[in-house]
Design the sequence.
């Protein structure tokens, strides 16, 4: 993947998608990595850039049916392979210094 794809309703991946190590933004309502793979970086060369996968939609949007046990909207389903290797963050956990309230856009 050498460009940001246009926003799409439903992204299905049946082949192998390798994301080049540059900032990428994938915008869709749902993603299904069905029979292929989505990869960014690897164990020996982690992805150094920013990868954003943005799942859009509203709570009451129509959903998708994958099988009787998997129905919904704003779904990220992986039945193939998802390989994401990045630089480990310096901080892996923290404690809030105040209460996060409903509607807060930052904490």
Sequence:
């Amino acid at each position: 993947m050498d460009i940001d794809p246009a926003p799409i309703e439903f992204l299905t991946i049946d082949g192998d998608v390798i994301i080049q190590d540059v900032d990428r933004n994938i915008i869709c309502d749902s993603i299904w990595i069905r029979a292929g793979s989505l990869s960014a970086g690897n164990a020996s060369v982690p992805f150094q850039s920013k990868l954003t996968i943005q799942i859009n939609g509203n709570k009451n949007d129509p959903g998708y049916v994958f099988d009787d046990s998997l129905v919904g909207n704003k779904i990220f389903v992986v039945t193939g392979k998802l390989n994401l290797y990045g630089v480990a963050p310096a901080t892996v956990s923290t404690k809030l210094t105040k209460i996060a309230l409903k509607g807060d856009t930052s904490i």
The mean pLDDT is 88.
